[in-house]
Amino acid sequence: MRVLGVNAVFHDSSAALVVDGRIVAAVEEERISRRKHGKRPVPFSAWELPVGAARACLDAGGLSPADLDAVAYGFDPALTKDAADLGLDDPWDHLRRTYAEHAPQFLASALPGLDARRVRFVPHHVAHAASAALAAPWRTCAVMVLDGRGERGSALLGRYRDGRLVVEATQDLPHSLGLVYESLTEHLGFLRSSDEYKVMALASYGTPRFLDDLRPLLAATGDGGFTAVPPAWERWAPPRAPQDGWGGAHADLAASVQARLEEVLVELARWLRERTGETRLAMAGGIALNCVANSRVWREAGFDDVWVQPAAGDAGTALGAALQLAADEGDMLRPMTDAALGRAWSDDEVAAELRRAHVPFRTPTDLASVVAAALARDEVVAWFEGRSEFGPRALGRRSLLAHPGFAENLERLNDVKGREQFRPVAPMVLADRAAEIFSGGPLPSPYMLFVHHVDPAWRDRIPAAVHVDGTARIQTVDDAAQPVLARVLRRFADLTGLPVVVNTSLNTAGRPMVDSPHDALELFGSSPVDLLVLGAHVVTRAALFQDGDA
Fold it and tell me: pTM here?
């Protein structure tokens, strides 16, 4: 089966291609359109057809639209009938249903050669569940999906056995842990359905002094469900304007909601563990991007293993819809082994782009040593290698790298990116050295979806990589999976004694992560980055601005 998956009804528009059970490609539309999610009016940002992403996926598979056996659309409009009884004041529900109903025709028009009759609908939370459990390294596991909303619900708890989903519990709207967190995000002056990760970071600066007040309002019900409706946040803190500071009651409210979210997730996961008897858990949905909560589930819910799909938000439903449809048709699915599923450029193509832009570059014979030496000199390196990542985390394909041993590099990187100073950056660490430095979370941790405690003996050695609460959201780097990057880390360790570098996404505030060489050159030309690595080639700031105007 050749199945194209599509997400295009809430946000994070995306496409994915699965061929004969193998994940061939997965791409978010924002990487190509250069319009970051949530930055435009709702009807446009939510319902952008992922035409560029779909074409990129088809190109990766060497297919045309006519070659597809099916298109799996990760939303079922038939489940949204009588949406007015959901208890939500959502004026877009009728448009969302109408848009999805006409999606087959939209897609056939946008992808000439596609037969609209081959488009099939997969329920939103089933697509989320499949994106985790069917991509996980096991054929049998429990699955937990929590997000803002699907067609009529906000959660699904169940199990997968050999590609078949058994639903144990769902949660109907208006109760939604995701919508509660979204509402808090907006109250704290951030962008709803976009900046929830900022609330998670801010929570570490506060004290959960409102936790007891929140427990009756956000509560598991003992049957796999929960109660959760956004309360009047003004009870605890006034609305925060974007220009206001980010401490005091606002940080305490973030800490309180974060703590209660973690408690409820642990209760739900424990219920699922007891209900199914499964020892492994796969997670997806927007809440599964909350790496602090994921770690608490890993530590306290009783599962032996917890795996989170790296594009756990709505982008991942394109992948999950395709996997579910492939499984339903009898394909033997292969697990996801890497998040590098996006577009790529060969070294020759990159060199041609550099020449077209009249950018001087060189191609060192020992790239790893050149980059490690630059990092050891405390230079900021823009790193562009191979296929781009699927999901919101920079995983060593499109990353900004820096020395972790200087505390001021946290502020420096946040200044480069133009973002809030309370935001942490993450350590990238050699997989075989991670246990020396980090604990309290699963190892290896290649997708940056859990937080770990930093050993006290290391906190002063890598201060730029340590969050205010003594934790770090790590990415482990394996020699086999990322050999060039692993060599950089080993050379850097030889020079500094530190098997860690700081990693953050290769973008600036309000812009999607860099995807193409052109995007990387644009960022390099406008940001205080010292060295740009494009595949096998390097560009230095001194060479780029030879007339001294850098």
Answer: 0.95
